[in-house]
From TrEMBL:
CDD domains: MDR_like_2 (cd05289)
Protein name: NADPH:quinone reductase-like Zn-dependent oxidoreductase
Keywords: Oxidoreductase
Entry annotated with the keyword Hydrolase: no
InterPro entries to which the protein is assigned, alphabetical: ADH-like_N, ER, GroES-like_sf, NAD(P)-bd_dom_sf, Quin_OxRdtase/zeta-crystal_CS, YIM1/Zinc_Alcohol_DH_Fams
Length: 332
């Protein structure tokens, strides 16, 4: 089958090629890919940023979002049947959605929202699960709280704004001048145009910050959170809790602890908590998102759709950092 394979780490390491069809384990569902989301995470994996902590060894098929149709099921599968329209973020050790077929554990899979096309559905899993695990599972956001979502026009931002608003929070976001109206339409109550204002000087006393940017933005975010508040970073640096969840060896745990020591120390001095989130696959949480989507509370924002043969161009477009919402490749 045709797939896009990381032959070696680096920006020029992703190539189109032919690979074997995936083997099916007892609890696996074989999905014919109809569409796949493209994420900044794909570029980070391609470039080798996670090679010390995640089980990717070239050559491997890239891709972390999928929507498609079930073509075969393993003997232990009970929740899905041939012909089902499904979507997923495969488990981190079994990525590979830039392909014609992918085998996915049924625990990581959910029926596609009926109200979405395949291309729209493929835009949901990774960013939807990231928003859910940050705001619902980790931050326990409740009505009346104040939530700041950075990069509100990006893939994670567009979904997190909507989810935080649905949870009853007052939502602030940062974006560029051209996207102010867009993020307001998604539910943002306070919009900081980073081209003209510094969010750290105009925002204060927030309960939760979700930061997909890292670096200076992450450090400044510590200053706008009230004592006892939480800053969640999805670009890093990773923290010891993440290393423990990975089951990493001691030397990797030590290295990860050192990477995040500075930001954790600064957070502690301000009486707030820094937490790194590397989202995990979850069919159960996707079903929660499906309910919200089909009820009209959430909707994916799709910037561009590329044909599957132009997956390299789609990844390059995401690399530019200017996508408004999600980019998708389609096999239809």
């Amino acid at each position: 089958m045709k797939a896009f394979v990381v032959e070696r780490y680096g920006k020029d390491g992703l190539r189109a090629g032919e690979v074997r069809e995936p083997e099916l384990r007892d609890r696996d569902v074989l999905v014919r890919v109809r569409a796949a989301g493209v994420n900044p995470l794909d570029s980070k994996i391609r470039d080798g940023e996670f090679k010390l902590i995640l089980p990717y060894r070239p050559p491997f098929v890239l891709g972390n979002d999928v929507a498609g149709v079930v073509t075969r099921v393993g003997p232990a599968v009970r929740g899905f049947a041939v012909g089902d329209e499904v979507y997923a973020r495969p488990g981190k050790d079994r990525i590979g959605t830039f392909a014609e077929l992918i085998a996915i554990d049924e625990e990581d899979l959910a029926l596609k929202p009926a109200s979405l096309s395949m291309q729209e559905a493929a835009a949901v899993p990774l960013v939807g699960l990231t928003a859910w695990q940050a705001l619902v599972e980790r931050a326990h956001v409740t009505a009346g709280q104040k939530v700041l979502v950075h990069a509100g026009s990006g893939g994670v931002g567009t979904m997190a704004i909507q989810l935080a608003k649905h949870l009853g929070a007052t939502v602030a976001t940062t974006t560029s001048t051209a996207n102010v109206d867009r993020v307001k339409s998604l539910g943002a109550d306070v919009v900081v145009d980073y081209k003209t204002d510094d969010f750290a000087t105009v925002l204060s006393d927030y309960d939760v910050v979700l930061d997909p940017l890292g670096g200076e933005t992450l450090e400044k975010s510590l200053t706008v959170v009230k004592p006892g508040g939480l800053v969640i970073g999805i670009s890093g640096p990773p923290d010891p809790t993440f290393a423990k969840e990975l089951g990493a060896p001691w030397f990797v745990r030590t290295a990860i602890a050192l990477l995040s020591r500075r930001i954790r120390t600064r957070a502690k001095r301000r009486g707030v908590t820094y937490s790194f989130l590397f989202m995990r696959a979850s069919g159960a949480q996707l079903r929660e998102l499906t309910t919200l989507i089909d009820a009209g509370h959430l909707r994916p924002v799709v910037d561009r759709i590329f044909p599957f043969d132009e997956t390299l161009e789609a990844v390059a477009y995401v690399d530019q950092g200017r996508a408004k919402g999600k980019v998708v490749v389609t096999l239809d």
